[in-house]
Design a protein that fits this description.
Largest sheet: 5 strands, antiparallel
Low-confidence stretches: 1-16
Organism: marine sediment metagenome
Mean pLDDT: 88
CATH class of the largest domain: Mainly Beta
Strand content: over 45%
CATH topology of the largest domain: Immunoglobulin-like
Protein name: Prealbumin-like fold domain-containing protein
Order of helices and strands: EEEEEEEEEEEEEEEEEEEE
Number of helices: 0
Distance between the termini: 93 Å
Length: 251
Amino acid sequence: VVPGDSSTAVTRTSDSNATKTWIAGSVTFPKAFEIGPYTSPDNVCFTLQYHDGVSFVDATFATPSAEICEASPGASTSFAWGNLRLGEYQIIESLTPNGYATITPIGFFVTETNPDVTLPEAENLLQPGDLRILKLEGPVPGTTWIGDPVTINISCADPNPPTGCTPGTLVRTVVFPTGQTDPLLETGFAEGDYEICEVVPLGFTADQECFPVTVLAGVAGAEAPLVTFVNTPPTEGCTPGYWKNHTELWD
């Protein structure tokens, strides 16, 4: 039975025949996907499940199938199932595109008075990304930073800044502490291009003062891009604070 077709079920009683006509239900599920500077949806799958009175199970009776997949759906698409029975349903995201957050299950009912259901549009949002920052004392390749804490500024940048962020806009300031041996992990950035600049410590030279970095949706933790700043102290010990921070040179 397809949506809109009628089917007749006959129930026999002791003295007469009772006839009930019903129409197979359907559901239409509009979908949207946030598009980032670098990420758009690849493969995505949604599965329709039916509550059998005990738990939700795959609606294997639905057409074209319980699970529907689509490759490269773009910013918007829709999914539809037919041949639905009366009852309670939910749609789950059984395969989430890379870089996207999984939507929560969406529940609905197919009833005699509302057999053909159109759901509100649901949107998959991009996951945030991370970046890592390491500060070393030069010369290259560098050793643990033992100078004063260093201020580092993170701003949106060309060519593909995060959506809605003007290049040059400061989005975060971090401080790299004295004696820190591991990179700082900075989390929760929208996908896009950034520029990371340090405030060069007084008397030190910078191997590179600013770095471009691209944050990708869902790339986090140890997989996040790493930016390393190396500051070289002067060869002469006349810079304020230099001797204080280099006790190994004391007589």
